[in-house]
Write a structure and sequence with these properties.
By secondary structure, the protein is an alpha/beta fold. It is 40% helix and 14% strand. The chain has one domain (6-224): Decaprenyl diphosphate synthase-like (Undecaprenyl pyrophosphate synthetase), CATH 3.40.1180.10. The protein has helices spanning 14-20, 25-46, 65-81, 83-88, 104-116, 133-149, 212-224; strands at residues 6-10, 50-57, 92-96, 124-131, 177-180, 199-202. α5 links the parallel β3 and β4 (124-131).
């Protein structure tokens, strides 16, 4: 089976999962967090190089205050509770997004785990936190403009590869496979530039019901697809 190097996941459907069961939305997020654990463990076990999870979008601030507070507390608990497991399994933890918008405690926990796991050589786990692809592109344009004004680069130096130097994670490879749960057919402002040739796998299953078996099925389907990147297969 052809294993992707980088899988990105839009973990959608927590709220709808909870509503369908007569539960509060936060119960859906709790259930979703358990699935995150399972997918990370599976990714590390099969030797996946990078897993990027859309954990908190820049648009999520529009949600009810109680839900935002809960999501931040859930993130804090996760960063504290999972540190030993991340280190034990040689996982490198990173983030993308404007994490400086989070409370100081959250920022400190992110920095601590990022620093502590920096030399790990197994799976790279990236959480997209307060992330929006349009904001990332705008921020990159601002950085490029500043570099031009300061004469650190020339206009002709700007190309598809060099522009990545100004993204949130300059080392992030494009996702080979993007999985979206919950049945919606859109990217929702997630890795827009990086996903130009990414294979998409959409499932109607809500994230709390997403299983390791379906994760494996998504990878199997990816392995059967022919990726031409705009070229023609003349065989």
């Amino acid at each position: 089976m052809d294993l992707p190097n980088h899988i990105a996941i839009i973990m959608d459907g927590n709220g709808r999962w909870a509503k369908s069961r007569g539960l509060s939305r936060v119960k859906g997020h709790e259930a979703g967090a358990e699935v995150v654990d399972k997918i990370i463990r599976k990714s590390a076990k099969i030797g996946l190089k990078r897993l990027t999870l859309y954990a908190f979008s820049s648009e999520n601030w529009k949600r009810p205050k109680y839900e935002i507070v809960f999501l931040i507390k859930l993130l804090n608990r996760y960063l504290i509770k999972k540190e030993p497991e991340i280190m034990k399994n040689n996982i490198k933890f990173t983030t993308i997004g404007q994490t400086d918008k989070f409370p100081r405690k959250t920022q400190e926990l992110i920095k601590k785990l990022t620093t502590k796991s920096a030399s790990n050589t197994g799976l790279t786990l990236c959480l997209a936190l307060n992330y929006g692809a349009r904001s990332e592109i705008i921020d990159a344009v601002k950085k490029v403009s500043r570099a031009l004004i300061d004469r650190k680069i020339k206009i002709d130096d700007i190309n598809e590869n060099s522009i990545r130097e100004y993204f949130y994670d300059r080392e992030m490879p494009d996702p080979d496979l993007l999985i979206r749960t919950g049945g919606e057919y859109r990217l929702s402002n997630f890795l827009l530039y990086q996903s130009a040739y990414t294979e998409l796998y959409i499932t109607p299953v809500y994230w709390p019901d997403f299983t390791v078996e379906e994760f494996h099925s998504a990878i199997e389907e990816f392995s059967r697809r022919e990726r031409r990147f705009g070229a023609v297969d003349e065989r």
